[in-house]
Amino acid sequence: MIVVVVVVVVVVVVVLIVVVIVLVNCHVEIVAVVNDAVGTLMSAAHGDRNCEIGLILGTGCNACYMEGLDNVGTWTHGDDQDHHPRQVIINTEWGAFGDNGCLDFVRTEFDQELDTFSINPGKQIMEKMISGMYIGEIVRLVLVRLNHENLLFTSVDRDCNLFERGRFYTKYVSEIESDTDEFFRNTKQVLDELHVENYTIEDCKVVKYVCTLVSARAAFLAAAGEKLFDCFLSYAVLDCIKASF
């Protein structure tokens, strides 16, 4: 359903752009098609030439960075090198980082279950650990496991929405984390929407703690990825990697 909605939105946007171009009689030449990460970097660099990283952290995640042309082995220079740019934008598709198993040492049973029941098992591993499309489901899986261990919602009806895949939205994580007092108003509202009954204040504390852990891990992974780009740009990758551990 999500994929269909995204495709429909893209088609509608393209049609609207074409209609506007025709109506105002513009002569437009399309010279490139870029994704949101590259577009973000280009738009920011237009106003600040020191901007060298484009980062998307939303429903999905991706990043790109500026690279010296001499370091891009796939670029064919041709005869007239003076007309080539000195830098190019590298789109990393970093959401796929970990598809080769290199992140298995930090993945949990909840990450593995989420991946198994996703529309693309084994793909976009890093994205599934940090992006908005998946964070809510990770929290839900943790809460369900705690319930099965009789550590949370001990008298809950297991026919409620908490036990249905995809029903714990990522927006719930932000709402729950915004609770700042002992009344847990937002947490209670979320639990009510999920039709969780007979919860206690201790249950609310645990739910908020789980949300905090999952979102903090996502932030740490995103920060680690951004730090690696800093390393590429400073040409001190090994030193940066050592400093991260």
TrEMBL record:
Tell me which stretches of the chain form a coiled coil. none
Q: Where are the transmembrane segments?
A: 5-24
InterPro entries with a match to the protein in the record: ATPase_NBD, Hexokinase, Hexokinase_C
- Enzyme Commission number(s): 2.7.1.-
| Membrane as UniProt keyword | yes
**Gene3D superfamilies in alphabetical order:** 3.40.367.20
**Domain spans labelled Hexokinase C-terminal:** 52-225
User: Which PROSITE patterns did the record assign?
Assistant: HEXOKINASE_2
* Record keywords: ATP-binding, Glycolysis, Kinase, Membrane, Nucleotide-binding, Transferase, Transmembrane, Transmembrane helix
> What's an example Gene Ontology biological process for this entry?
intracellular glucose homeostasis
Output the Pfam families linked to this UniProt entry.
Hexokinase_2
Which pathway is this protein assigned to?
Carbohydrate degradation; glycolysis; D-glyceraldehyde 3-phosphate and glycerone phosphate from D-glucose: step 1/4; Carbohydrate metabolism; hexose metabolism
Q: Name one GO cellular component term.
A: cytosol
Catalytic activity of the protein: a D-hexose + ATP = a D-hexose 6-phosphate + ADP + H(+)
One of the record's GO molecular function terms:
D-glucose binding
Q: What protein family does this chain belong to?
A: Belongs to the hexokinase family.
Report the protein name in the record: Phosphotransferase
Whose protein is this, by species?
Answer: Elysia marginata
Its taxonomic placement starts with: Eukaryota, Metazoa, Spiralia, Lophotrochozoa, Mollusca
